[in-house]
Specification:
By secondary structure, this protein is mainly α. It has one domain. The protein has six helices and no strands. α3 runs antiparallel to α5.
Length: 139
């Protein structure tokens, strides 16, 4: 009975983890798409002065990776502070015993970078395909 409960709990935690990563990727993609919409004229100007599509693509992907790097670092710091504070609460201390390892932070940082890359691919591709004349006409 206890083994079944533990297995179902671990399965739920894994499902929540996957859902959180999916939502994170969607949020990154949405943020980058909105950035592209707001900067359509700027991107058109860059294309008009000679920037190649690949350069635009790299620029947007780089911005997405920067965004996720900062979010990953802030998320790790928030997690450490939150769990450390939670472990000071007597009731929660029975269930929460935070242990930090370099592997935990490396994995979290890698996930943030992968989400940044995946969430930025479509917006970057879309921005790189903008035609200068259409982008400059955009209001």
């Amino acid at each position: 009975q206890n083994t079944d409960d533990m297995q179902s709990m671990f399965a739920m935690v894994a499902a929540i983890r996957i859902l959180a990563m999916l939502v994170g990727g969607i949020v990154v993609a949405n943020t980058m798409i909105m950035s592209i919409f707001e900067r359509t004229r700027e991107i058109g100007t860059l294309r008009a002065v000679g920037w190649e599509a690949g350069r635009i693509l790299r620029q947007i992907l780089q911005e997405s990776l920067y965004l996720c790097t900062v979010a990953g670092v802030l998320g790790a710091l928030f997690g450490v502070v939150f769990l450390s504070g939670l472990s000071l609460v007597p009731v929660a201390a029975q269930f929460v015993a935070p242990r930090w390892s370099a592997q935990t932070f490396i994995t979290a940082f890698a996930v943030a970078l992968v989400l940044g890359a995946l969430g930025g691919i479509y917006p970057a591709w879309r921005a790189s395909k903008l035609r200068p004349v259409e982008a400059l006409r955009y209001e």
